[in-house]
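Q: What structure does this chain adopt?
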Amino acid sequence: MRPRIIAPVAADADWRISFGFLELLDEGLRSHVVEGARRINQPAGLVREYPGGAITADVIESGLVRAYQISEDGRQATIAYLHARQYLGTLPALAPRPVVYVQHVTNASLLRLDPDNLQNLFETDIGFTRALAIHTANVLSRVVHVVTVRTLGTTRERIAFDLLERASDEQLRSGTFEFALTQEELADSIGSVREVVSGHLGYLRREGIVSTSRGRIRVNDPERLAAILHGLVT
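A:
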């Protein structure tokens, strides 16, 4: 069954990801990009549907956002986890645009960019167009990784990939990866079922790679978790 959409956005919305998109712009151009923007605060647990259409674009100021697809029988598959400073929105040159579900894993603050301003910059500013080209390359690279893991990866590899993707910049710097996450939520994220995921987490626990408690998973050894993906994702 389809998820209940708590707060659908306008039908002209869409999404794309970028890694530090605003950092691709010089200071002057960055100030132009955020002209007319407005701040939106979203609570944890909020689910939004982004249908294809005209430009809708956010920059995440804080929080963790999950983008995913869902099948007719209710199975889910995470496309990406987006963190602070990343871009959640359209590519003006791309059409048609797919429908994507977005879930706010934590409370989030978003900067909603002005669509007319973005379209004008896309059509008139070579610096902005260049940044979008780099952004598009990031998206395509991301798609290759996701498709590889989803189609060729074992359940254990999909679990490892998902847990590593959840890590924020702060967690990456500190090396402490701990998430409020149930086994059922992890199973939904990788398109599996809780019983199968539970067995693989049991193996990872016995190996000392992860620890679990009620509603939480902690990665004790990120390097060994990443090693599970060796040869699959480079």
